[in-house]
Amino acid sequence: MRATSYLMFLIGAIFIAFVPVQAQESPLNDYKNSSQAWPLPPVGPKAVTTKTILYVATDLTNGGILGVAEGLEEAAKEIRWQLIVSDAGGDNSKIAIILKNAINQNLDGIIIGGFNSSKFAVELQALADKNVKIVGWHSGGTSGPLKDSPVLTNITTDPDQVAQYSVDEVKGDSAKAAGVIIFTDSHYEIALKKSAFMEKAIRQCSHCETLEIIDLDLSEETSIAQKRIKQLLDKYGSQWTHSLAINDRYFDFAAPVFATYEKDFPMLIKNISAGDGSYSAYLRIKYGGLQYATIPEPLLLQGWQLIDELNRLFNDKPPSNYVSPTIIITEENILKEVNKNNLFDPLNLYRKTYMNSWKVDN
User: Among 68, 276, 58, 288, which residue's Cα sits nearest to residue 159?
Assistant: First the structure.
């Protein structure tokens, strides 16, 4: 059984018909388990043609950043823009180099993916001064325009709501005491916002206890991350009943460690991710692997939205201020909400909405 479990978790650690509805008629709770009734993005201006866009990706081994790239590629093809993708591989110094080099690339727009814009204020301002339009995905802790920043709009779901949904899954296990380990990454403002919310909410739960908050780099070497997780298993033993993580990547690290641990209790730990919905996470959930739930970003939709937000800026229009609802993916709804390519793809006809807005001739 252990060999079978180990194989299953190694697989789980691999990295990488629509119905129109009237969203306003559906209460918020309906959004939590189904995307079919999600509100559609607002109609925007007609497409501006022949634009060249750079996507600066923090680390394409991160499922969220990769999923956004896939959405961007889809949307850029439809709007007929040139999309360039640069992967920094989790290296901040490389991000700075990419942004500096971008000044000489005759770009119309830049999308920054997964890093705090405040850490690269000088480089981004130099690009903005050349009239390059800048939008971001998870480039700050809030959605919309970022204050005192050249990032004209930032795309994210509501981090507090995402964190609340994850904590609700722990609090719902009222039959037993819950010992929780929270995984976060202090490199990201949005990650710290989620983990702080989680810790506060766990303190308000009578049968829950936060055992430890672990600050672990999402781009950490696998061997180092797995050694850290093994130390936590040794330290807390069966007191550790739940994991809350700001990203599915932590369970990529944990799955092989849990499956080969000398005792059986890690197999019972309920692992819940508050972002972003990855290929490997969906495999673990689908096949009874070591993950109970993920609360994903609608990555493909957000890729389309980022292109649309740039198009609004090119038309001298304000941001859409569209923020998608939040969904939790478990074994109960995964077959409906996750597509054949193993990506969460909202069922609310967002592609048709954007295409109708852009009025691109086929």
Answer: 276
Whether 331 is covered by a domain: the verdict is no
307 within domain boundaries: yes
Q: Examine the domain organization and report whether 116 and 199 are in the same domain.
A: no
Write down the residue that tokens 């609360």 correspond to: 295
In a domain, residue 225? The reply is yes
* HSE (side-chain half, CA atoms, 13 Å) at 278: 27
What is the separation, in whole angstroms, between the first and last Cα of the chain?
Answer: 54
Same domain for 240 and 310, yes or no, is: no
Task: Check whether residue 195 and residue 243 sit in a common domain.
Answer: yes
By C-alpha distance, which of 230, 169, 161 is closest to 205?
Answer: 169
- Tokens 């303190």 belong to residue: 203
Tell me which amino acid residue 243 is: S
**Structure-token pair, residue 296:** 């994903």
For residue 335, is it within any domain? no
Q: Give the CATH number for residue 267.
A: 3.40.50.2300
- Structurally, how many domains does the chain consist of? 2
Round to whole Å and give the CA distance between 159 and 23. Answer: 21
Confidence band, pLDDT 50/70/90 cuts, at residue 23: very low
**Which domain covers residue 177, as residue numbers?**
2-13+159-294
Neighbours of 125 (CB within 10 A): 12
Q: Are 32 and 328 in contact (CB under 8 A)?
A: yes
Amino acid identity, position 25:
E
pTM metric for this prediction: 0.87
CB of 252 within 8 A of CB of 209? no
Q: What is the spatial distance between Cα 111 and Cα 104, in angstroms, rounded to a whole number? A: 16
Is the confidence at residue 170, as pLDDT, over 90?
Answer: yes
Contact 27, 320 (CB under 8 A): no
Within this chain, do residues 133 and 49 fall inside the same structural domain, yes or no?
yes
What letter does residue 124 receive in the DSSP assignment?
H
CA angle at residue 217 from 211 to 222, to 5 degrees?
Answer: 95
- Enter the DSSP assignment of 39: P
Q: What percent of the chain stands above pLDDT 70? A: 91
**34 φ, ψ (degrees, to nearest 5):** -150, 135
Of how many residues is the chain composed? 362
CA 145 vs CA 43, 138, 152, 194: distances in Å: 19, 12, 5, 20
